[in-house]
Sequence to fold (199 residues):
Amino acid sequence: MLNKLIKINILLFVIVLMTACSPVRLPDQKSYTLNSLNANTIHARHTNKTVLVTTPIAASAYATSRMAYIKKPFQVQYFAENRWIAQPAQLLTPLMVASLQQTNHFKNVVGSPFTGNTNYRIDSQMLTLQQNFITNPSQIELSMRINVVNNMTQQLLASKTINVRVQASGNNPYAGVIAANQAVAQMLAQMSQFVVKTI
Fold:
């Protein structure tokens, strides 16, 4: 019995040792976020209007936490060791809410899920968020379609596609993350101006 126990312990020790010395190493995953707001927000006359911002719907290639890039036209690829902490469309919702709140134009701005009544609704689609390596240096391409809807009548009041390109400081994923945050800030500024003007 004692010999059997010693053999089991030796076997476990050898397995642990082999695993620790294995030449196969899994790459470290690096996770990034989007959290930049527009610095030059517009300020408009305060109203009693309320707005619901729904979570953007992402095009299928970008409905993932994987970070997308292109090296050839029409071919979307993903970084193996770098990813967003969540799907970018989900990361954008609180930023869109905060950006509209900064305008001081609305009585209240809320994000989905929300079950109360609001005067207006902002629906959006994330059409593109990718690092383009066809250009040198690379650049981030962000494209969003913004729809302003009257929540009382369900009427579409206005729709706009916002396209932003920001040159990255280098040809690597982290430079892309920095550029992506700058692109988001620019998109939010344009979105806020469009929504305030429409409402």
